[in-house]
Hints:
Distance between the termini: 42 Å
Strand content: under 5%
Order of helices and strands: HHHHHH
Largest sheet: none
Shape: flat
Amino acid sequence: xxxxxxxxxxxxxxxxxxxxxxxxxxxxxxxxxxxxxxxxxxxxxxxxxxxxxxxxxxxxxxxxxxxxxxxxxxxxxxxxxxxxxxxxxxxxxxxxxxxxxxxxxx
Length: 106
């Protein structure tokens, strides 16, 4: 376990890193937030993963990325027991023109 001081330092460092990220262009921010979402997802930290994925989605410029994020977010919502939101996002992802993405949703 981390000591109180170590936890405070981690929080401070995380805050500093996010301030730096917010100064970057949207494309870079999108990539960083998406990678952070995947890391949290791998650690089964569903709520932080949702938070980072939503930040990546806010910064995306392409419809295909948006559909991919919808699919990822649907999976996270399913883990959190939010089936109505998950189903709605899956329906959005089905609008994609990418056959591989469509097949991953069905």
